Amino acid sequence: MIEIICNDRLGKKVRVKCNPDDTVGDLKKLIAAQTGTKAEKIVLKKWYNIFKDNVTLADYEIHDGMSIELYYQ
């Protein structure tokens, strides 16, 4: 299990525990359950890279304690 910190820069910071072999879509569903927003409205970025839903966290080299930017569309 790894813990990922998602910050939307509007005052909301979410800590999510998941597995490295989970997809980004699974991570969005976990974030949506904690924040109350729909998973389809969430966009996850690191710098200028937008994470795609069907790729695993291990493929993006997302590790324990890593911080990801959380945006809403």
Folded structure, characterized:
- The chain is α+β, with helices and mostly antiparallel strands.
- It has one domain (2-72): Ubiquitin-like (UB roll).
- Helices cover 16% and strands 34% of the residues.
- The chain has one helix and five strands, in the order ββαβββ.
- Strands 2-1-5-3-4 form a five-stranded mixed sheet, with helices on one face.
- The longest helix is centred in the middle third of the chain and has 12 residues, at 24-35.
Give the CATH H-level superfamily.
Phosphatidylinositol 3-kinase Catalytic Subunit, Chain A, domain 1
Poorly predicted regions: none
First-to-last CA distance? 28 Å
**Overall geometry:** globular
Listing every helix as H and every strand as E from the N terminus to the C terminus, the arrangement reads: EEHEEE
- Write the CATH fold name: Ubiquitin-like (UB roll)
Can you tell me the CATH class?
A: Alpha Beta
Q: Return the CATH architecture.
A: Roll
Helix content: 10-25%
> Into how many domains do the coordinates divide?
1
The assigned structural class equals alpha+beta
Strands ordered across the widest β-sheet: 2-1-5-3-4
Number of helices, where a helix is a run of at least 4 consecutive DSSP H or I residues: 1
Main sheet overview: 5 strands, mixed
